[in-house]
Amino acid sequence: MKIKLLIVDDHLIVINGLKYYFQTKPNIDVVGYALNGEEALQQVEAVNPDIVLMDIQMPHMNGIEATKQIVQRFPAVKVIILTSFSDRDSIIPAIKAGAIGYQLKDVDPDVLTETIFAAMDGQKVIHPEIANKLMTFVASEAEADFRFNRLTSKEKEVLYHITLGQSNKEIAAELHIADKTVKTHISNILSKMEVQDRTQAALYTLRNGWFE
């Protein structure tokens, strides 16, 4: 049986290029396309594809949100990300949303075909560049977790108020402790987090989403 493929991209030239290529693959049938995430959800319901090739940056609804909704609403449908974006804010959310594969648009077409067949078998396939970045992200998160776990509960409280932009006096009043105690906590925080000042501490904390 042919694999039913839905292509989602906001550039028709990309869609037409993929359609033309997959016409040469007897086991893959392009059953539709969509120009954004909202259309993708409508098309998934209408044509019931096996695989969705999903871009990320699109108007109205991006590919990450569309992937999340497809995986939740149509669990039998598998989503492969096909994008030009290889940054942390694209990769991690896409995988968390439920994408079974992640390929960049510079991928060899035959490798993309192999990714589709692998996805049908439930295998996760990602571009080598993405795999390398994932390893870096995981190592970075492990380091961040280590730094956060070194802090005492009171130091975490003080750090939280630092991220709110509060002064030492404001933190002292909020936590009902002395100004000197706040300064001691901040000194310990900077040392354990291995940062130079409270601004760096706040930025590092926000970047890693410690208090989300």
What does this protein structure show overall?
By secondary structure, this protein is α/β, with parallel strands linked by helices. The chain has 2 domains: 131 residues, 3-Layer(aba) Sandwich (Rossmann fold), CATH 3.40.50; 57 residues, Winged helix-like DNA-binding domain superfamily/Winged helix DNA-binding domain (Arc Repressor Mutant, subunit A), CATH 1.10.10.10. Helix content is 58%, strand content 14%. The protein has a 6-stranded parallel beta sheet with strand order 2-1-3-4-5-6, with helices on both faces. β3, α3 and β4 form a beta-alpha-beta unit. α2 packs parallel to α3 and α3 packs parallel to α4. It is elongated.
Quote the average pLDDT.
93
**CATH-level-4 superfamily name of the largest domain:** Response regulator
Structural class: alpha/beta
Largest sheet data: 6 strands, parallel
Under the CATH scheme, the architecture of the largest domain is 3-Layer(aba) Sandwich
The CATH class of the largest domain is Alpha Beta
